Amino acid sequence: MIEENVKKLLEEIKENPFGEKVTLVAAVKTQTVEDINRAISAGITDIGDNHVQEFRDKYDGITGNPNRHFIGHLQTNKVKYLIGRTYLYQSVDRYELAEEISKRSERANVTSDCLIQINIGNEETKGGFEYDEGLEAYEKIRAMPALKVKGLMAMLPISDDEALLRDLAKKMRALYEKLRGKDGDIRYLSMGMSGDWKLCMECGSNMVRLGTSIFGPRHYNT
Ligand SMILES: *Cc1c(COP(=O)(O)O)cnc(C)c1O
């Protein structure tokens, strides 16, 4: 099942209408090492974790050397466990976190790549900078010594209003293009989950994070 899902998704997720390659990141929260490795054997090159404990527990069991993304809310006191092992910190949602990643990276003599998370739906339950703060957040975080900003990450709200979702996704693309116009390192707009990735890709996302459509429904009780 996982193999079929991955193969089908990789067929569908290749290029966005802007002619950019789209990266499929498997969102692996709650999944077993066996299932994650199955997805990797089927062609997954990038995986994204939400919880530091899960990331650490599974780290050595993962085969195939995928790029490891961190996509969930990250407490500053746990950053130390990720340094040097994370390909892309996607969920940089506040300055305090950016400073901690930069400080720890500097100490470890590495540069860490990150995305700035934007709370595009202005939702209280979600982290991220406000849309209008995006440019300023980029300028400030870019100036931190051991961090490199590679783009933006966002989660659209849950809504049936497709016109609204398209508007928000296009706003994200507009901000992404503004940054890219200033900075050649900017190249990821990470936006799109199982329920909305098609819409996001059409509007210019070039990185989607999928869990359910690869692994099926999550089981949280084990
Ligand atoms: C869980 C998660 C996803 C994937 O969600 P699905 O709806 O299962 O595809 C994507 N991004 C983040 C940040 C997540 O936490």
Structure description:
- There is one protein chain.
- This protein has 8 helices and 8 strands; from the N terminus they run αβαβαββαβαβαβαβα.
- The chain is an alpha/beta fold and 222 residues long.
- It has a single domain, classed as TIM Barrel.
- The radius of gyration is 17 Å and the shape is globular.
- The model has no long low-confidence stretch (mean pLDDT 97).
- The site of pyridoxal-5'-phosphate has 13 residues, from strand 8 and helix 8.
Q: Give the distinct bound molecules.
A: pyridoxal-5'-phosphate
Helix-strand pattern: HEHEHEEHEHEHEHEH
What is the number of strand segments? 8
End-to-end Cα distance: 21 Å
Poorly predicted regions are none
User: How many separate structural domains?
Assistant: 1
Q: Mind telling me which CATH architecture this is?
A: Alpha-Beta Barrel
Please identify the structural class as seen in this structure. Answer: alpha/beta
Mean pLDDT: 97
Summarize this, please?
With 222 residues, this protein is α/β, with parallel strands linked by helices.
Please outline the helices and strands.
Blueprint: H1 2-12, E1 23-27, H2 33-41, E2 46-49, H3 52-58, E3 67-70, E4 88-92, H4 95-107, E5 112-118, H5 134-142, E6 147-154, H6 162-182, E7 188-191, H7 197-202, E8 207-210, H8 212-215
Parallel strand pairs: 1-2, 1-8, 2-3, 3-4, 4-5, 5-6, 6-7
This protein binds pyridoxal-5'-phosphate.
Keywords:
222 residues, alpha/beta, TIM Barrel, 8 helices, 8 strands, binds pyridoxal-5'-phosphate
